Please model this.
Amino acid sequence: MIHLHVALRRTGPTEPLRDEGPFGDHTGYCTLPEPYPVFHVTAITHRKDAVYPATIVGIPPMKDFYIGGASVKLFLPIFKMNFPEIMDLALPAEGVFHNLVFMSIKKTCPMQAYKSPCGRPPMHGLWGMGQLMFTKYLVVVDDDVNVHNPSEVLFCLRANTDLPSLEALAPDRSRLRFLMTGLLTASNHPLAALSFQTAPDASSGIVRLAPFAASAIDYQGTNLARAALHSGLVVLVNRDPVLLASAHPASRLVLFGRPGTNYVLEFTTNLLDHVTWQPFQSLRLTEPSASFEVSPSGPTLFFRAVEMQTP
Model:
């Protein structure tokens, strides 16, 4: 206590958790309400000339930007010990500290940023180091690019890539366009991806994907005939579980839900008035989905899945 500048005193014990939030930060993101312990302050004591360390956030660049620059200088030698191909690292002010990272590497093979011959890939490795796991964009360039010059990095980025674009053709059809330049290997690499995000209060649902055409050309302009198409679906689990029925290869039910949640499968023989649901099976999901076999013979059964309420 003798080394403290400021001390907060509270009553004890703490009461049950209360919801706190939502909060909006200076980057435009909003955190959802979450339960936190309640702290009732009864007194604030401090030294006569107390120093209260704090940072003030606002329109960048602020103090966190300069702290980020100092952190890079301190930890870059440690990063190089784990990833020897890393040459330099920068946290531009436009990224508000750790949201955007520019990294240059001594490249010896294609796609080295996430498939390194030296051991752990530097891209995935940095995303697992401390607060860098909160990085939203990590741009990796060759060692001849000055990562401390955002204009030079962005010129290199736009000169070598083309971001995927989704063009709406009809209410149930869209065209996905993307271009990857400089890919000289014959290995399989992901070139584009679709992501789905729901509102916090939205219900769960299913998005069916039915690709109907694909075309590709190489860097010389020659048409390629090796594009493969596969139909599928995306299951979005939000508030409620999703239950799918499949007749092949056997009659089975597939339950999609939140891992760590208890669910119960119920069935009934009719969907008329005064429906009585009977338990079929209960389980605790350890993965995003689980499957169950059901008998294809006997009376017609209707199934549903509901979350078990904890007492």
Notes: The first strand starts at residue 6 and ends at 10. The chain is about 10% helix and 35% strand.
